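Sample intake sheet
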Amino acid sequence: MRVHIHDTTEAMSVAAAKHAADSIRQAIADRGHAAIVLATGASQFGMLENLTAAPDIDWSAVTAYHLDEYCGVDREHPVSFRRYMRERFTDQVPTLKRFIWINADEEDLGAEINRLNADIAANRIDVACIGIGENGHLAFNEPPADFEATSPYLLVKLDDVSRQQQVGEGWFSSLDDVPETAISMSLQQILKSKRLIVTVPDSRKAAAVGAALEGAIDRACPASVLRVHQDVSVYLDAPAASKLRYFST
């Protein structure tokens, strides 16, 4: 694991996006196309802005998947991750080959999960750009996380800490408004990615970052499972790194 600590959120985002862009270009050079995973949330604002502005990426050779989506939320709703990803990614790279949307407002969620599982099983993921939640979640794999689930996508119940995070970031006005379930990429599927680029700003994430990077690899902190991966880079701003004891600039 490589940990990169930056003085500002902007510098963190620029560095993470450059690493992601370089990884995508290399995958295209090596095998003619790339498959990537992208996350949503406030932590990814700057990274996505810089990634979509990166030069010399042949987006027509790129297939993209996203991590999760709330159940029962329409794609045009302001909190929809599909809307987030459309506004911040696909609208910015109109030549993108494919984006595989999670349609978690379908009546038959089992059929939707089967569709997603079949699609991603046909692709090797070159790079996943993800974040860490305030309770240590990866995607919406909440503590105590299922480290063994092999289904690429899962129907999950959201932890109240995760739901409150969505309120704190301004996506919802109250906890009661936050959906209780979502479709999420599983931890085992995330770990199948050849490279993981993890971008985490803000002091609100500091305790989770400390547990993930320096605590036990344990279901109580889902992000701790990142430490079993062979190629993971974590990009932090100074507030997010403030509780680390052993890592420094």
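Comment: The domain at 2-237 is CATH 3.40.50.1360 (Rossmann fold). The CA atoms of residues 127 and 195 lie 5 Å apart.
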